[in-house]
Amino acid sequence: MEFVKDQSAGYLANHMARIFAHGLTARIKPLGLTTGTFPALLELWDTDGLTQKQLVERLDIEQATMANTLARMERDGLVIRKKDPNDRRVQRVWLTDRARNLRGPAMAAAQEENAARLAALTAEEKRQFVALMQKVIQTRMPEKQGNV
Amino acid sequence: MEFVKDQSAGYLANHMARIFAHGLTARIKPLGLTTGTFPALLELWDTDGLTQKQLVERLDIEQATMANTLARMERDGLVIRKKDPNDRRVQRVWLTDRARNLRGPAMAAAQEENAARLAALTAEEKRQFVALMQKVIQTRMPEKQGNV
DNA sequence: AGCACTTGCATAGCTCGCTATTCAAGTATT
DNA sequence: AATACTTGAATAGCGAGCTATGCAAGTGCT
C-alpha cells in the first residue's frame, strides 16, 4: 500500500487525540465536567472575567465553538456571562464558586491522564514528545513562536 | 497546582489533531471527501467488501460511529452496503467507481498535508515523532482502581 | 445627525466522535 | 420446536468542532 495509516502523522494524531479525550472524559465525568470546557476553565482559573473574544484568541478555537461551549458551561453552572457595561457587545465570563472549587481535582485528573498515556515513555522521550508537538503546532502558528 | 496547557500532552494532542484535520479537510474538499471517511476508505481501497464489523476492528472506532460514517458515505455515493447472503445480519461495504478513482488524489492530499505539517522537523525528528505517537497509542494501561 | 463600516456574539446547520439502546437475524439449549 | 442467548447493525441523543450567516452595539466619516 502506498499509504500506511499507522505511519501517517495526521492519522496517528487523530487516533492519539481520541485516546486522550476518552481517558480524560472518564476521569472528569465524576466532577461533572466534559473535555470541551477544559481549555476555557484553564484560562479562567488563571484570569477570571475574560471576554469571549479573549478566550478565543488564547485557545485557537473558533468563535462559534466558544460561544456554544460557554452556553453549555452556563447551563451547567460553571460560569455566568455578563455584558460589559462599557461595551455592551462584550460578554465577560465569570466562574461560579462551583467551577473555582473544581480547579484542583480537574488539574489532577488531567495530569493523571497525561501520566497514564505517557507511561511507556522515558523522561527524555516525554520531553521530546511534547517539544515535537509544540513544534508541529507552531509550524502553522508562527505568530506564537517563543510564546509557549 | 501548576498546569501549563502548552506543556500538557493531551492538550497538545487535541490541538495538533485539530490542525491536521483542518488542513486535510481543505485539501480533500475539492474531491468531495471529508476526513471521517478517510480511515474507512483506506481499508476498503486495500480490501473491498469488508463487513462493518471488520472496519470497526481495524480502525479503533466505535460501531455506532462507523454505522453513521458509512451512511454518509453511501449517501454521497462512495460506497454501497449489501447484506451478506450467508448471514443477513452482516452488511458488506463495497466501493463505488467514484471512490476507487479517488484513491490516488486522496492519498496524495494526505501525504501533502503530513509533509506540510511536519515541514519544520528534520528527517530524524519525523521518524521519532511517528514512533512516539505509535508508542503512546499502543500503551493501554489496565484500568486502575482508586489510585491512578 | 446620518450613513456606512467594524466588531463581538449568537444561531443554523453540518461532520464526527461517543454512550446507550433497540432490533433483527443466528445460535444454542431444552 | 420454543425459548433464551448472542451478534451485527441501526437509531437516539449528546458533546465538540467547523463554516456561514445574522444582528446589535460601537466607531468613523461627511
From TrEMBL, chains A, B:
Q: Which InterPro entries match?
A: HTH_MarR-typ, Tscrpt_reg_MarR-type_CS, WH-like_DNA-bd_sf, WH_DNA-bd_sf
What are the UniProt keywords, alphabetically? Answer: DNA-binding, Transcription, Transcription regulation
- Record organism: Altericroceibacterium endophyticum
Residue ranges annotated for the HTH marR-type domain, each copy included: 9-138
Q: Which SMART domains does the record match to this protein? A: HTH_MARR
Q: Give the matching PANTHER family.
A: TRANSCRIPTIONAL REGULATOR, MARR, TRANSCRIPTIONAL REPRESSOR OF EMRAB OPERON
Q: Which residues form a coiled coil?
A: none
This protein is called what? MarR family transcriptional regulator
Q: Which PROSITE patterns has this protein been placed in?
A: HTH_MARR_1, HTH_MARR_2
One annotated GO molecular function: DNA binding
